[in-house]
User: Fold this.
Amino acid sequence: MPRSRRRLRALALSVSLLAAAGATRATAQGASHEHFDRLLRTHVRDGLVDYDAFARAPEFARYLAQLAITDPATLPRAEQLAFWINAYNAYTIAQINAHGERASIKNINKSLGLVSTGGAWRERMATIGGVRYTLDEIEHQRIRPVFREPRIHFALVCAAIGCPPLRSEAYVGERLEAQLDDQARQFLLRSPTKNRVEASTNTVHLSRIFDWYGGDFASDRAGMLRWLARYWPAGAERRVLEQGQARVQWTTYDWSLNRQPR
Assistant:
């Protein structure tokens, strides 16, 4: 059996054992994200992750065990969305470590010949409420069609430099609106290699995220640009977006792992 498969099975077993051992206490606590929050604050800097620190942290395994026994359907709507975002991000980190990958998430389960494995996103490795999910199922079945919230694309982080930055705190229901808005500004206004507006040439340079998921923001490209305009300060760049007629160019998506330098 490949080493990565053994690691994933070991991860699943440890999560199951921890979940069984702490089922009563974790259920009573509900959907606390305290363990994950502390780890994010300690081991994520400027969106870059210390994956080795997460691999060593026993509280990370305890957090995954809590996710494994919590049914998010019992939570208020905002807490449900916060839960699923945190679960996606946490299990992405867990998957990177389970495979021992330190270059790119795209290296996980690479397609062989004409047989597509679906890569990292179709590996059934995330246990939530007693159900095993793939990352694709979490995003495309449990989040996008249920919540219809385009800002999730600024919060779900697929372990790549090209993604929005991983937030150095967990998402929580009572602050979710402010957190998602802040993530939008971080990604749109502070990452010029990914997103920027050139008013002089009437050109908008955007991440491929808006190519892949533009329909989540608006029914057409003009509407998407107008949706984005709300995050730009008043001025020429915002007017370009509000007019909705700009030429769009997609920026290069960097699939390098969002890891901290050694």
